[in-house]
Design a protein that fits this description.
By secondary structure, the protein is α/β, with parallel strands linked by helices. The protein has helices spanning 8-11, 66-77, 117-143, 161-172, 188-199, 202-205, 222-231, 233-238, 255-269, 287-301, 327-348; strands spanning 24-29, 32-37, 48-55, 85-92, 150-159, 176-182, 272-279, 311-318.
Length: 355
C-alpha cells in the first residue's frame, strides 16, 4: 500500500512554505541522532521551557519535520508568553528509518511484499514511543548542561506513523501533557483489519464471515495480539473485539467497568490534552478505524459523565483531505500549541511570595 509523504500537502499555501529561519543543533543521545530546533531563539528571561517532539511518517525521516518545527517555533515566539516560557522542538529518525534503517522491506506493507507488516509497523512505532521516553529523560542534560533552564512540559506531535506513536506517548508517559495526533490511529487492531481486508489477505477472505481468522493468524500472530493488548490505547480499554471490525458502543460502560477503568484513565491521561486531526477522505488511515475509541473517550469526558473534566479532547475531521497534513491542520496545530503553552505558563509560574 503506497505511502506518499503526508507532509507535502502542509507546504502548499501554508506558513511552512518557505519555512521561517530557526536555529538547529544536533546531539547524539543514547546512540540516536537528535535534532533540536530553537535553542538560540530562547528568551534570556524564559527559564522554563516546553519541548515539542515531532514524530515523522512512515517511509520518511526526521528531516521532513523540520519546516513544521520551524513554523511552530516561529508562531509561539511571536506570543508575549514566550518571554516567560520558551519552546524548543525535537526530531529524530524512527526505528528502521533514515540513519537507523537496517531493512527497507520491513517498512513496507503487505501489498509491497512484507509478510510481517503487522509485526513490523507496531513494533517500530511502539519503539518510537519508547525512544521518546528515553530521550525525554536525558534531553535536558544535553541541551541545558548548566541547568540554567528547566523543561516543564512535553508535547508530542506525530503524523501518520508518528501519529500512532504519539497516542502511545500520551498514554504511557506521565511527562507528556499534550498530544497532537495527525492522521494517526489509537486502535491498531481496527487499522490493520481494515488494511488486511483491502489487501485481500487469505487470512481475511477465507472465512465466513470474512476476517474471523485474521487475528491470531501468521498475518497477526497471537504474540502480536498480546503486545497490542498491553500497549495499544484502544486495546487497553476496549479489549480484543469479537470481530476485527470494532463496533462503536453507544452506551456508557457499566458501573463495574467504570470502577475498573477509571484508575487507568486517571493514571494515563488525567489532566492531559489531545488534538486529533483526521482527513475525512483518508483511505490509508481511515478515521473510522479509531472512531470507536475516540467516541469512548468523548463519552467519558462529556459534561456530567464518569470522567468529566479529566481530559481535554478535540477531535476534528477535514472534508476532502486524504492522507496528508493539510494547511488547515497546520493552523489548528499552531492554535492548540499556543493554548497548551499558555496553560503551562499559568500552571508552572512561580507562586507569589507570601507576606
Amino acid at each position: 500500500m503506497a505511502a506518499p509523504n503526508p507532509m507535502v500537502g502542509s507546504m502548499e499555501g501554508s506558513l511552512l512554505n518557505p519555512a521561517p529561519p530557526v536555529s538547529r543543533k544536533t546531539f547524539i543521545i543514547a546512540g540516536i541522532l537528535v535534532t533540536v530546533y530553537g535553542l538560540e531563539e530562547l528568551s534570556q528571561s524564559a527559564r522554563r521551557t516546553a519541548c515539542l517532539w515531532l514524530l515523522h511518517p512512515r517511509l520518511q525521516t526526521q528531516k521532513c519535520m523540520g519546516p513544521l518545527a520551524a513554523a511552530c517555533l516561529d508562531h509561539w515566539n511571536h506570543h508575549d508568553e514566550s518571554q516567560e516560557i520558551g519552546l524548543v522542538a525535537v526530531t529524530f529518525d524512527q526505528r528502521n528509518h533514515g540513519t537507523r534503517e537496517v531493512d527497507p522491506l520491513s517498512n513496507e506493507a503487505w501489498r509491497s511484499g512484507n509478510k510481517q507488516h503487522a509485526q513490523d509497523m507496531f513494533s517500530i512505532y511502539h519503539g518510537t514511543s519508547t525512544d521518546t521516553t528515553l530521550l525525554m529523560t536525558y534531553l535536558s542534560s544535553y541541551i541545558f548542561p548548566s541547568s540554567d533552564r528547566e523543561i516543564v512540559s512535553n508535547l508530542v506531535l506525530g503524523v501518520s506513523l508518528g501519529g500512532h506513536a504519539a497516542w502511545h506517548c500520551l498514554f504511557h508517559d506521565s511527562r507528556v501533557s499534550a498530544a497532537i495526533t495527525i492522521i494517526g490511529c489509537p486502535d491498531y487492531i481496527s487499522l490493520m483489519s481494515d488494511r488486511a481486508r483491502l489487501s485481500k489477505l487469505p487470512s481475511w477472505t477465507e472465512s465466513s464471515p470474512p476476517g474471523m481468522r485474521f487475528l491470531g493468524s501468521p498475518d497477526f500472530p497471537a504474540g502480536l495480539l498480546e503486545a497490542v493488548g498491553m500497549h495499544d490505547p484502544a486495546a487497553m480499554f476496549l479489549g480484543k473485539p469479537d470481530h476485527p471490525v470494532r463496533e462503536i458502543i453507544e452506551q456508557l460502560p457499566s458501573v463495574n467497568e467504570q470502577a475498573k477503568f477509571l484508575p487507568l484513565l486517571k493514571r494515563t491521561v488525567q489532566g492531559k490534552r489531545i488534538l486529533n486531526l483526521s482527513g475525512a477522505a483518508d483511505k490509508l488511515v481511515p478515521y473510522k478505524c479509531g472512531q470507536a475509541f475516540v467516541e469512548y473517550l468523548k463519552r467519558a469526558v462529556a459534561p456530567g459523565s464518569w470522567f468529566s473534566g479529566g481530559l481535554y479532547l478535540e477531535d476534528l475531521q477535514f472534508d476532502g483531505v486524504g492522507h496528508q497534513m493539510s494547511p488547515a491542520m497546520v493552523q489548528k496545530t499552531f492554535r492548540f500549541i499556543a493554548d497548551t503553552l499558555q496553560q503551562t505558563e499559568l500552571a508552572t509560574a512561580p507562586s507569589a511570595s507570601k507576606i
